Structures
1.
Amino acid sequence: MSVKMGVLALLVGGPGYGYQLRGEFEHRTGGSWPLNIGQVYTTLDRLERDGLVARGDADDDGHVVYTATDAGREEVARWFSEPVPAKRGRDELAIKFALAVTVPGVDVPRLVQVQRASAMRALQDLTRLKRSADPTVDLAWSLVLESMVFQAEAEVRWLDHVESSVARYMPPAVHDAVNDGEAIAAAACGTVR
């Protein structure tokens, strides 16, 4: 999601100024996506340039208040009516494993275990948070939190798949290179196996 559409959607809900919009965005997303205030004001300038918001006068506290224009409301309506494109391509974790299975000396099963332990810790933390969340009080945060839980669960399942694929398909020569790499590293450190 772009910050542009998030800020614009908030302005469709009513007028606002930079710090107010940042706080509202972070509140509605449970703080899962903190915004830099400079990013908010840059976004407001671009939205105004594109005719999607109008800059109003300053309020009594000196805050410049923005409102969504008709074009801005149409843009948000369009955004809410279209699906979010599926994430494809550059997934750092998938690329790391794709390289790990092809680079000699990488202990891929250990890499799987390290990543799985990290994902499980994240999943446990998210599950604890989920227990304290009340969707009747804050549905927006509950939805964001549940999305993060599902993503962590999917990562663990994918790591299980990686582990079984490596055991089934990784050529023995690569496994031997891992062992040779460990022996070379041990020799370089002065330790004997």
2.
Amino acid sequence: MAKRGILPNYLNKLFIMKLSASLSIALIVLIADLASKYWIESLLEFGQSIPLTSFFNLVLTYNPGAAFSFLSDQAGWQRWFLSGIAGSAAILIIYLLNRYKQEKLFCLSLSLILGGALGNLYDRITLGHVVDFLDFYIGAYHWPAFNIADSAIFVGAALMIYDSFRNRENPQQSEKENH
């Protein structure tokens, strides 16, 4: 029986994150994101804020730009530019999910990023801006408002960074052992 990596095929199948599972995770993120944005837009008017704690508000705001309102002051070309980037990234992520399905944590991180990217892409294409509503602050300093899609992208990126350091062999140590 041929081996794939270090595990025999029959064991390898137990440790594979199927593409359908990865896409299901992305779909759950997408649905949660779109449902939360629909709910907040039905609850608040643009600019309205509901204080919930001494450090957190719900606020309805729109971001025509990218993260931290980057490019938000442009004439509108950024809508299609950022949509093209998100669409291209989604295609690449689906390819990577299929290619590296044996890497569970990597696939989970990509699934979260894909779901978040698609949530913001939907907003950008249909509305021309992204709906943001989570407002954390300390005193008078407010972190830029964000949404569930942004949160999923952040968590996915953090997991990807963690995965890049996890269970990696020290190249210098391996080199010493081989001599």
